[in-house]
Structures are given as structure tokens and as C-alpha cells.
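FORM 7B: Structural annotation worksheet

SECTION A. Query
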Amino acid sequence: MKSGYTTYKTVNVDTADQGKLILICYDVAIRSCRQAAGSFGRTDMIEVRTRHLFKAQDAITELMSSLNMEAGEIAKNLYRLYEYFLHRLVEANVKSEKSCVEEVLRHLENLRDAWNQALAILKKEQAPAPVASEPAMQANFALTA
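SECTION B. Predicted structure
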């Protein structure tokens, strides 16, 4: 039986638009990087750290697959950046270097903020024009009659 939180997450993903799905991928990658970074320096947490790094890599791979490569240079640049992130996370795991994860985390946080701002602007631009209130409409009819 699913927990309430699991059901919420499933419904949230199933009903999300493309922009929200991208933010969810960023959130997963960021959370996983934070958790991985917190487990460095502890030999009893190597397996946990590896699991978090793999989850971050999966989220970044999902971001890569969501790119529309026909969109131009920005998509190609993001793809190369995501490839770099994957390389750094593998390096972090192989060499046990927390700084690699921290670097990727900073970039992911900045990119997530940029996506969030872009989506807010897009949403504002696509919002329907406000409907005039009834008194204003009545006054408009009086002026044109």
C-alpha cells in the first residue's frame, strides 16, 4: 500500500507540465548531491554516498534527455554542461572528492533558479488578460452609447 507522500509525489509528477518536470529533476539532483556531500569523510557511508550520487546522475541524465536539440545553441551548451556534471560526479565517487559534488551542486542550484524565473515569466506572459469588473463594463457601455 502506498503512503500518502508517495501518492502525492506520483500524482505531482503525473500531472506536471514540462517546466515543472524539469524543476522536479533539478530538485532531485540537488537533494541527492546534498545528501551525497553530507556523507563524505565517513567510511560507513560509502554505499549511501554512492546511491545518492547515482540518483543525482539519473536526474541529470533525465535533464539531458528532455533537451530539444533543435532549439539551437542553448540546448547544445546545456547538454555539454550536463555531461560535465556527470563526469564530475563520477570523479567524486571514484576519488572520494567532496569538492566535485559541491561544484556540481552550485551549478545545479543556479540553473534551477534560472529555470524557475524563466517559467514564472512565461506563466505571467501566458496569463489571460484580467476580466473587467461589471461597474467598469457598465461605464464603458454608457460612454459608447
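SECTION C. Observations
Residues 4-15, 134-145 have pLDDT under 50 and may be disordered. DSSP finds six helices and no strands in the chain.

SECTION D. Sign-off
Analyst initials: ____
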